[in-house]
Design goal:
The protein is α/β, with parallel strands linked by helices and about 230 residues long. About 40% of the residues lie in helices and about 20% in strands. Strands 1, 2, 3, 4, 5, 6, 7, 8 and 9 form a nine-stranded parallel beta sheet that branches. Helix 2 crosses helix 3.
């Protein structure tokens, strides 16, 4: 069985190769190591091996891990966030990738503003058509961005999406292209306070294609920690 260190070395080599093949500086692509269901001891091993950003899907699961793992790493929330968990997300996470509705953005703003925080967020876009996935519809993103731009305490950094799972990573490419083009359209609107510097897209099975299409953050779990235990 490969160790976490070996997995990370292979992953970083693949990231660099994909970036260089696309004519992009490798340092522009950052790894979010998805630690959902991973025990704290193995997360600490990954951090010691160089992981700088950890991604979690569930607030309750993450709280204990964050306390056990300690500092020296940035925690990103990448799962569907219930509005009633916003106060915990602000307390424990440095960035939220999955803001998909104005009610959530307003609640994050309401909590972050009095604390003097400026929380980086991404607008999650639903491009897959799958009922099991979340996100604002493509045509809704422009209005969402306009409304979020007026809120204090949060700062839109870019977009996030999750394409369907494909055995052939190339099949995910149209979804990554669509997200990049959507970001370009938002840039053209010049909405005050809305940055499109980041694209959070690509996972263990398709991150190389995502990098080729402009990903700045890839969310990888299985390729680092191995398959998750069966439920």
């Amino acid at each position: 069985m490969s160790t976490i260190v070996e997995n990370l070395n292979r992953l970083q080599e693949r990231m660099q190769k994909a970036a260089e093949g696309a004519g992009r500086p490798p340092e522009k692509i950052r790894l979010v190591a998805v630690s959902k269901t991973v025990e704290p001891g193995r997360i600490i091993e990954a951090v010691q091996a160089g992981v700088k950003i950890l991604g979690e899907n569930y607030v309750q699961e993450a709280q204990k891990k964050i306390l056990e793992v300690g500092g020296g790493v940035s925690w990103h929330f990448i799962g569907h966030l219930q509005t009633n968990k916003a106060k915990y997300a602000i307390r424990f996470f440095d960035c939220i990738h999955s803001v998909d509705r104005i009610s959530l953005a307003e609640e994050l703003s309401r909590i972050a503003k009095p604390q003097g925080k400026l929380l980086p967020i991404f607008l999650q876009v639903h491009l897959s058509g799958e009922t099991t996935k979340f996100g604002a519809k493509e045509e809704e993103v422009f209005g969402l961005a306009e409304r979020v731009s007026t809120l204090e305490g949060i700062s839109v950094q870019g977009l996030m999406t999750m394409p369907p799972y494909f055995d052939n990573p190339e099949d995910a490419r149209p979804y990554f292209i669509k997200l990049r083009r959507l970001a370009d359209r938002l840039v053209a609107l010049k909405i005050p306070g809305i940055a499109m510097a980041e694209l959070s897209m690509g996972m263990s099975n398709d991150f190389e294609v995502a990098i080729e299409e402009g990903a700045t953050l890839i969310r990888v779990g299985t390729a680092i920690f191995g398959p998750r235990p069966a439920k």
